[in-house]
Amino acid sequence: MKAITMTAIGNPDVLELHDIDEPEISTATQIKVRLKAAGINPVDTKVRRNGLLYDNPLPAVLGCDGAGEVIETGSAVSQFKSGDKVWFCNGGLGREQGNYAEYTVLDQRWVSLMPKTCSFVEAAALPLVLITAWGALYDRGGLQARQTVLIHAGAGGVGHVAIQLAKLKGARVITTVSSGQKAEFAKAMGADEAVIYTQNGFADAVNKLTDGKGADLVFDTVGAAVFKESIAATAHFGRLVTLLDPGELSLAEARMRNLLIGFELMLTPMLRDLLDVRDKHVEILNQCAEWIDKGLLKTHISQQFPLAEAAKAHQLLETGHSIGKVVLVL
Q1: Which residues pair with 91 in a beta bridge?
Q2: Which bin fits 53, alpha (ψ -120 to 50), beta or left (φ > 0)?
Q3: Contact call for residues 242 and 264 (beta carbons, < 8 A)
Q4: CA angle in degrees (0–180, nearest 5) for 312-301-279
Q5: Half-sphere exposure of 157 toward its Cβ, with a 13 Å CA cutoff?
Q6: How many Cα atoms occupy the beta-carbon half-sphere of 310 within 13 Å?
Q7: Which residues of 305-316 are buried (b: 16+ CB within 10 A; e: fewer)?
Q8: Residue spans per domain, the chain
Q9: 296 pLDDT more than 90
Q10: What contacts 114, CB < 8 A, 6 or more positions away?
Q11: How is residue 257 annotated by DSSP?
């Protein structure tokens, strides 16, 4: 089968189109899926730049997010049948095969039926970002109706679905963006206010919008500098959740504010084989599928690339200029 393989650690040109062995079902509870699309996420580019997250040799197939059609089932599979359209977040970190390929095999336990109203491209764009945003806002952040949440990078892959999940909870959403175009997009996704941080940062603007109180919950999707400034934009006794390592910094002001600081890494259950938590990830996809089919949740695809152009997709994502998601189409 055709697949994009990571042949070395490095720039996007280490991603090459090769013919590799087609995976086959090896346990009774596995299904085989003909992939139709694969989502591109920042973790894919980080693995490509820094190396696999398992001590296995290269080459490897990247891509955590996939959507496709079931074409074969193991003898004990009870949840799916041939012809079912499915989406999932599985593999792509250096142990199980990722989804930059024509076929994949995985256990039925980690698979969900696609939303009926989604295309394969839309479905492939969503699993990782939905699970990430859900974990940060609902689980780590404890977001409640009528609270104010600050979501950083609201035009990004995680950000634009986080805005929608926050509005579904009944929260007021402030988001940060880098341009007027992205501000308009974020508001179209449901944000109540958008702060263009490139002008004067964001803390002062957020505090002005909240009458000096700050946001009850801040969701940092960017990194150390944003995390540091976010402390001053978080309400006393509020919560600050980040996807990334904030680095070494003084937490004196966070302590004075009595902040709860949390981390969200949705890959942990896959990396640590926390099976019960992975079950919850599938439950999240099931719930989100219902919301999507009711028109309450959607994704924005900024660009689609054919499988052979995976390197170009990585290049685009690493510019930081794309809005929404980038997807490979098979």
Answers
A1: none
A2: alpha
A3: yes
A4: 100
A5: 27
A6: 30
A7: bebebbbebbeb
A8: 2-126+269-329, 129-263
A9: yes
A10: 67, 85, 86, 87, 120, 123, 289
A11: T
Phi, psi (rounded to 5 degrees) for 103: -140, 155
Q: Are the beta carbons of 113 and 79 closer than 8 angstroms?
A: no
Using alpha carbons, list the distances in angstroms from residue 106 to 73, 120, 139, 166, 168.
10, 18, 27, 31, 31
pLDDT tens digit string along 238-258?
999 999 999 999 999 999 999
The CATH number of 2-126+269-329 is 3.90.180.10
Q: Within 10 Å of residue 39's Cβ, how many Cβ atoms?
A: 30
Could you tell me which residues come within 8 angstroms of residue 46 by beta carbon, excluding any fewer than 6 positions away?
none
- Report residue 235's pLDDT band, with 50, 70 and 90 as the boundaries: very high
Indicate the angle between helix axes 127-134 and 275-293, nearest 10 degrees.
100
The CATH architecture one would assign to domain 129-263 is Alpha-Beta Complex (3.90)
DSSP 261: E
User: What pLDDT score was predicted for residue 199?
Assistant: 83
| Domain 2-126+269-329 identical in fold to domain 129-263 | yes
CA distances from 184 to 90, 191, 196 (A): 33, 9, 11
Q: Could you tell me the two tokens for 309?
A: 């152009």
Map 29-84 to HEC letters: CEEEEEEEEEEECHHHHHHHHHCCCCCCCCCECCCCEEEEEEEEECCCCCCCCCCC
